[in-house]
Amino acid sequence: MYLIGFESSCDETAASVLRVEDGKLTVLSDIIASQVETHRRFGGVVPEIAGRAHIEAISRITYEALSVAGIEPDALDCVAVTSHPGLIGALLVAVNFAKSFALSHRLPLVEVDHMRAHIAAAYLTETPPKPPFLAMAVSGGHTSIYYVADYTDYRLIGSTRDDAIGEAFDKVGRLIGIPYPAGAGFDRLATEGFRKATGLETDFFRAYRKSDAYRDPAMHLPSPALAGDTLDFSFSGLKTAAVNLIHHHEQTGEPLDRALFAARYTYEAVEAVAGKLGVALTQHPGIPLVVSGGVAANSHLRHRLAALAAERGVTLHIPPISLCGDNGAMVAAQGYYEFLAGARATSHLNARATDD
Ligand code: KG4
Ligand code: ZN
Q1: What is the CA radius of gyration of the chain?
Q2: Alpha carbon of 331 to those of 27, 82, 238, 273: distances in Å?
Q3: What separation in Å is there between the alpha carbon of 140 and the centre of ligand 2?
Q4: Which of 147, 162, 173, 339 falls between 20 and 30 A from 249, CA-CA?
Q5: What is the pLDDT of residue 44?
Q6: Nearest bound ligand to CA 265?
Q7: Of the bound ligands, which one is closest to the alpha carbon of residue 140?
Q8: DSSP run (H or E) holding 233
Q9: Which atom of ligand 1 is least distant from the CA of 293?
Q10: Ligand 2 centroid – CA 114 distance (Å)
Q11: Residue nearest to atom 19 of ligand 1 (CA)
C-alpha cells in the first residue's frame, strides 16, 4: 500500500510518500520546506509567520512528493497527518489540507501524534525495532520517555516538568551567539570544549569528568535530572543557572570560554538523559531502546547512549540525522500502524496544541 504523510506542527512543512510491501516500509519521497531562515532573525519560531509560511508551501511540496515518488494521488491508499501536539496555527494548515486532500481523492484519513511519529522514524531504518521497546523523544518541544507496548500503545513514563531539552539548547545557545536553531552549532562548540578540556581528539566524553575543566567551580551547572527513581527532568534550572553564569561573566568582564561552557552544558544535558534512560532500562530490562527527535542528532548524546546500550546489552536504534528532525515520512510510518489498528479520522478532525 501507499501512504502520504503531512507534517506542519512547527517550522517545517513536510510531505512524504511511503510504500509498505510485506510489512517493509520504504520512503519514496520526503520533501521538507524549512522556515529556519525566516525565523532566525527573531531567535525562535514566530507562530503567526509559521502558519502563513505553511500555507504558502503545502500544496507545492505535496505535488513534489507525489512526483518524486512517481505516483498519482488516486494510487494512494491512506492520508496521514500530524494533528497534535504543536503550534495550533501551524498544525491547522496540514490538518485542513490533509482533510481536503483525503476527501477529494476519496481516501481514508488517519491522525498522528507528533511524538509517536518521531519515534516511528526508527521503523524507516534497515533494522526497524519491534515493540515492546523503550523510546525517548528529544526535540525542541519535548523530552519524553515512553514504554512502547505496541505500535499504537505508547505509555508516557517520564518527561520534562518545564522546558524541553532542544529549547534549553536553543535559548542558551542564542545567549552565547549561536544563531537559531542553536543545536548543531552548540554540538560543534562543545566538541571543541571537550577536546580542550581533555586533550583528546575523540572519545573525550568519559575523560571529561576527570578533567580540571569539569571540576572548575566557576563552571558549575546543576543536573536537569530530577533526583530519585522518577524518570522526569527539569531543564529550566539548568537554563537559569547557565543564564546567570553568562551574565556574571558579562558583569565582571571576566571572559567566558564559550567552548568550555558549551561542553559543560552539553555534559549535564546528555548525562541527565543517559542517567534517566539507565533507570528506565533497569525498570524494563532487556528491551531495545529507540531515541529520536531533533536533539537525537547531537553527536555527544549519540555516543553516550551507544555506550549505555552496550553496557546494558540492549540494541540502540537512533534514526539517521535526516529522519531525526521533523519530516513527513515519520508521520506516514506511524500513520501506517494507526491505519492497521483501524483508526480513522473524519472531516471533523481538529488540530490540538497539547499532548492528548
Ligand atoms: O524535532 P525537531 O526538528 O522539532 C521539534 O519537534 O521541536 O527538533 C528541533 C530541535 C531544535 O531545538 C534544535 O536546536 C535541536 O533539535 N537540534 C539539536 C541538534 N540538532 C538539532 N540539539 C542538539 N544537538 C544537535 N546536533
Ligand atoms: Zn518534532
Answers
A1: 21
A2: 11, 7, 32, 25
A3: 7
A4: 162
A5: 84
A6: 1
A7: 1
A8: none
A9: 1
A10: 6
A11: 183
Ligand 1, atom nearest to 138 Cα: 1
Ligand 1 atom, smallest distance to 173 CA:
14
Backbone angles phi, psi at 48, to 5 degrees: -65, -40
Of 80, 8, 7, 65, the closest CA to residue 31 belongs to 65
Could you tell me the pLDDT band of residue 85, with boundaries at 50, 70 and 90? Answer: very high
Pocket lining for ligand 1, CB < 6 angstroms: 10, 139-141, 166, 169-170, 181-184, 186-187, 293-295, 297-298, 325-326
Q: Which residue is it, cell 551547572?
A: 221
Other Cβ atoms closer than 10 A to 209: 12
Q: How many degrees, rounded to 5, is the angle at CA 268 between CA 266 and CA 272?
A: 115
Mutate to test the pocket of ligand 1, among 118, 139, 235, 326 (most ligand atoms within 8 A of CB): 139
Phi, psi dihedral angles at 89 (to 5 degrees): -65, -30
Measured from the CA of 326, which atom of ligand 1 is nearest? 3
What is the enclosing helix (H) or strand (E) of 353? none
Give the pLDDT score at 43.
83
Give yes or no for a contact between 173 and 186, defined as CB atoms under 8 angstroms apart: yes
Does residue 355 register a pLDDT over 90? no
- Across 231-343, the runs of DSSP E, i.e. the strands, are 289-292, 316-317
pLDDT score of 129: 98
Tens digits of per-residue pLDDT, 58-73?
999 999 999 999 999 9
The Cα–Cα gap between 231 and 198 comes to 30
* DSSP track, 133-175: EEEEEESSS-EEEEEEEETTEEEEEE-BSS--HHHHHHHHHHH
Q: Do the beta carbons of residue 157 and residue 147 sit within 8 Å? A: yes
> Left if phi > 0, otherwise alpha if psi is -120 to 50, otherwise beta: which for 233?
beta
